[in-house]
Specification:
Binds as a heterodimer with protein bS6 to the central domain of the 16S rRNA, where it helps stabilize the platform of the 30S subunit. Helix content is 35%, strand content 0%. By secondary structure, it is an all-alpha fold. The chain has a domain of 38 residues. The termini are far apart.
Amino acid sequence: MEKKKYSKRYCRYTEAKLEFIDYKDVEMLKHSLSERYKIMPRRLTGNTKRWQERVEVAIKRARHMALIPYIVDRKKVIENPFKI
């Protein structure tokens, strides 16, 4: 069997030659988040270990400051659970 050939992923932060990641820049942080706002792993984003750790800290700070939600629930939401 032949092995699948994947394209090499590059760290977007290393290529951009950034000094640091600002937690207030939500648009940049969204590239490292899934559609349910979970932090994507390095193997999917292609980030280096150094930058992945910095991205995680920035996302956690943004969540703490309520810039990014902790949980996004796509299921049916009951507006008033006490109303029958």
